[in-house]
TrEMBL record, chain B:
Pfam families: Hydrolase_4. InterPro entries: AB_hydrolase_fold (IPR029058), Hydrolase_4 (IPR022742). It comes from Bradyrhizobium centrolobii. SUPFAM superfamilies: alpha/beta-Hydrolases. This is Serine aminopeptidase S33 domain-containing protein. It comes from the Bacteria. The lineage of its organism: Bacteria, Pseudomonadati, Pseudomonadota, Alphaproteobacteria, Hyphomicrobiales. Residues 48-170 form the Serine aminopeptidase S33 domain.
Length: 256, 308
């Protein structure tokens, strides 16, 4: 595995590149993770998925968005449009590093939502896209985060702790300081009713019982798979036992 | 705070046998590390080096801005690091990884003095490793394993009895109070350690940790112990519990104890993390770190922990 920084000087991104087992037909896979504690909790599952993809011949790249994980920037610098640019940057990086002609993208949670929204504008056209439990309704998602936060009496809305960032207004969401535009961006996500122009080969995997395929106007052109599997992005106390093996198997079979 | 505002850089640290270990080193961009001091941040449980709520990225950068070299890395098999090649027990493998990280800092950065920072199991690893390596001059232990004391039991009981939900659970025969009391009694009877921290199999955790703390204090290792007060299932309930639990240890001036009454175990609010960063940064900058040249006490008993 090759850990490295890429992107521009102003927007350094951390990535982990893993070359696949020799298999010319497979291609290269970009893994786009979620955000906040979902990213942290699911880190292991994404690494294992990466390894499983490598084993069937994919070169893989996992990366952190700007202002998240090990990438440059502070949490308050994060913007959803900027993260879509990061996905394009990572895709170009992967294409260049691997030299493979076939490129696929696997997005999890917020990563899946961003990939779906970005799909018509991607600089490198992916052969296939997997959307793993995308966030369909941003206002519901934000409400869940705020409800959880309300359990902590020591909440704070505090822009003073943001350090050197220039963000005019900042607030706390999911335990992180974020800009108001990031907050609004999350709330405006709507894949239930807003159509997105998806490429021909898209697999949407749903493991969360609350979503039904009929509620996803935005993703209605994709192939839908409803699976019973653990949710690795949840806090350990809420997680079911084990890894989402069923999801891994489905992704590998569909891409293989 | 002194020194804030220094430019820093972050680089990938890829080191150890077969370059199996991965981390990020944050360090001043221009200023040479004249005091040869570095901070190494350890994993919390199975969470990778970024930490809960990105807390270790923020802490690393704040320390680097004050002129410190900071390494946050993943133990073998965690985060981006590859699994350990040997068949060592997990604890030994992790302790060996700390040694490997120190060697890398020494070789590539000329670092000869190191402060270890750890939360929960990270703190447990730090105290178990710290006394044995002369390069370790300081330990920042955040919510380390603290054996329960009599006052802890009283506080805990009182808190649970005031909680209406615990009565409902009791009625439903699911009482955490009963379960936790049973756990504690079981631990005392079977002389085992804390289930949410490292599991000290077959050794007396309190006795062994006392020896580790005593050895650290004797060696002149400075200790910053930070405890939080808002656990869902608290391991400590009052500021002095650490001192009461390890009352036999002669900490002297080596111990600085802080209690974050309103912070939870993973510092999930921005405010609590900001205060934590301020405290750690200030302590690292203002403490005189000087390891004693005195001979360490025999460590054969403490070494039992290493095989746990």
């Amino acid at each position: 595995m090759l850990p490295f920084f890429f992107g521009s000087k102003q927007r350094r991104l951390y990535g982990s590149y893993e070359p696949g087992a020799h298999c010319a037909a497979a291609g290269a896979a970009l893994l786009c993770g979620s955000w906040g504690m979902e990213y942290t909790n699911a880190h292991r599952a994404m690494r294992i998925l990466s390894k499983r993809l490598c084993a069937i011949g994919f070169d893989t790249l996992r990366f952190d968005y700007f202002g998240a994980g090990d990438s440059g920037g502070e949490t308050v610098d994060a913007e959803l449009d900027g993260w879509k640019d990061d996905i394009s940057t990572a895709l170009r990086e992967l294409k260049e590093m691997s030299g493979r002609s076939r490129v696929v993208i696997v997005g999890m949670r917020l990563g899946a939502t961003l990939v779906a929204e970005l799909a018509p504008r991607l600089s490198v056209e992916p052969d296939s896209i997997v959307l793993w439990d995308p966030i369909l309704c941003g206002s519901d998602y934000v409400k869940t985060l705020l409800d959880r936060q309300a359990h902590h009496s020591e909440r704070s809305i505090d822009s003073a702790a943001s350090g050197p960032s220039d963000a005019a207004v900042a607030l706390e969401l999911g335990g992180l300081l974020v800009s108001s535009s990031f907050f609004d961006g999350l709330k405006s996500i709507d894949l239930r009713s807003r159509k997105v122009r998806l490429p021909p080969k898209v697999l949407t995997i749903l493991t969360d019982n609350q979503h039904r395929s009929g509620e996803m106007v935005g993703l209605d052109r994709s192939e839908i798979a409803i699976l019973k599997a653990p949710s690795p992005w949840k806090d350990s106390a809420e997680q079911e036992e084990g890894l989402p093996v069923e999801v891994f198997e489905r992704i590998l079979k569909w891409l293989g | 705070m002194a020194g804030i505002g220094h430019k820093f850089v972050e680089r990938v640290a890829h080191f150890g046998p077969e370059k199996a270990l991965v981390g990020i080193v944050a360090e001043p961009a221009e200023q040479p590390n004249e005091n040869k001091l570095a901070v190494v941040i350890l994993n919390t449980g199975t969470i990778h080096r970024v930490g809960h709520h990105r807390m270790y990225v923020s802490m690393s950068r704040k320390l680097a801005r004050t002129g410190c070299t900071v390494l946050r890395f993943d133990f073998s098999g965690l985060g981006d690091s590859s699994p350990h090649l040997s068949d060592q027990p997990l604890l030994q493998s992790n302790l060996a990884d700390i040694g490997t990280a120190l060697e890398w800092l020494q070789t590539t950065r000329g670092v000869s003095r190191v402060i270890l920072v750890g939360l929960c199991s990270g703190a447990d690893h730090a105290i178990l490793y710290g006394f044995s390596d002369p390069r370790i001059v300081g330990l920042v232990l955040i919510d380390p394993y603290i054996p329960p004391t009599a006052r802890y039991f009283l506080d805990y009981l009182s808190r649970r009895l005031r909680d209406v939900r615990s009565w409902r659970n009791f009625r439903l025969h699911k009482s955490k109070l009963v379960r936790r009391l049973y756990e504690h009694l079981s631990q005392v009877l079977h002389r085992e350690g804390g289930p949410q921290h490292l599991v000290y199999q077959g050794v007396d955790a309190r006795d062994s940790l006392e020896k580790a703390y005593e050895a650290s204090a004797q060696a002149g290792v400075k200790l910053l112990v930070i405890c939080t007060g808002r656990h869902h299932a608290p391991r400590q309930t009052y500021r002095e519990q650490f001192i009461s639990a390890f009352s036999k240890v002669s900490f002297g001036a080596s111990l600085h104890l802080e209690f974050f009454q309103d912070a939870d175990h993973t510092f999930s609010s921005v405010k609590s993390r900001s205060e934590l960063d301020e405290l750690v940064t200030s302590w690292c900058k203002t403490t005189t770190f000087e390891r004693s040249t005195l001979q360490l006490p025999p460590t054969t008993d403490i070494a039992a922990l290493w095989t746990a």
